[in-house]
UniProtKB/TrEMBL annotation:
GO cellular component: plasma membrane
Subcellular location: Cell membrane
Organism expressing this protein natively: [Bacillus] enclensis
Pfam hit, one: Bmp
UniProt record similarity statement: Belongs to the BMP lipoprotein family.
Residue intervals of the ABC transporter substrate-binding protein PnrA-like domain: 37-324
Protein name: Nucleoside-binding protein
CDD domains for the chain: PBP1_PrnA-like
UniProt signal peptide: 1-21
PANTHER family cross-referenced by the UniProt entry: ABC TRANSPORTER GUANOSINE-BINDING PROTEIN NUPN, TRANSCRIPTIONAL ACTIVATOR PROTEIN MED
Membrane topology, as annotated: Lipid-anchor
Keyword annotations: Cell membrane, Lipoprotein, Membrane, Signal
Amino acid sequence: MKKFILILLVMMLSAAGCSSASSEEKPDENIQTIGILLSDTGLGDGSFNDSAFRGLERARDELGILFDYREAPDGNFEEALEELVAQDHDLVIGLGFSIQEALEKVAKEHPKQQFLLIDGSSELDNIISITFKEQEGSFLVGMVAAMKSKSNKLGFIGGADAPVIHRFEKGFEQGAKYVNPSITILKDNANNFGDAALGSSIAEKQIEQGADFIYPAAGFTGVGSIQAAQKAGIYSGGVDSDQYFIAEKSVVTSMLKKIDNAVFNLTQQLVSEGSISESSFELGLKEDGVGLAPVRITELTDEESKKIKEATDKIISGEVSIETN
């Protein structure tokens, strides 16, 4: 019910941002248009999808583009992508690694259409790829978690057994152990990005095992984990977007995966240059593709803040390397 309300609110507020172009022609050849297929959980996830949507809204307001979007909760990504291709957009975006297979299939069938894959890497000539160094931002969240943990046990909840989720996990673990080498990380895989109740139950289990900081990388499933942490009176960390407002008594900080900035910046290049020259992007701390949201609820000491700043600089310089395998 909560997710339905979130989705309804986002759709009501964002309706003006979507292109009303027919499937046969663009409304104006001088206006750039973009189509996006959102990942599995769709709008209202308070995280991944909503961040990308904000980027397109900003592009609409500041750059004058139009956009349309599709959701495919039934998993029929190809049909949704074909609908967007039929609208003759200047760029069609597939959001999330789970869409890659369908996106590549559709891209092969439409070689003149320009596509963008976010959270995956493709070798096809008409697909631009964007990946993020989630491990770098997660390393900093792990540091904060270890600094504020009293039990020396932290919890990590992943949404899938996938490379992108492993980057969250490995970064979080190594950041925590950078502060406290003896700290314990409890790990669970939800295998689901859209079940808040499942996320809540996993978090509750980890809390029973002694975790006093929960870090989920699991979309809307993670929202349930954060809310369970708040109910239990312990700390948590958000992902992708600043999730403080989901649980204002629990979320200390969030690992910002700046999908909104990436979408806006590429759209800006498309508008100004008429095309996007690069074939792939990998965005980390150095490129301002990931980062930390403000620390709230608790305060970092001057020494703790200094240590996080030093770690950030060392990651950017390459002095600190984060293992993701």
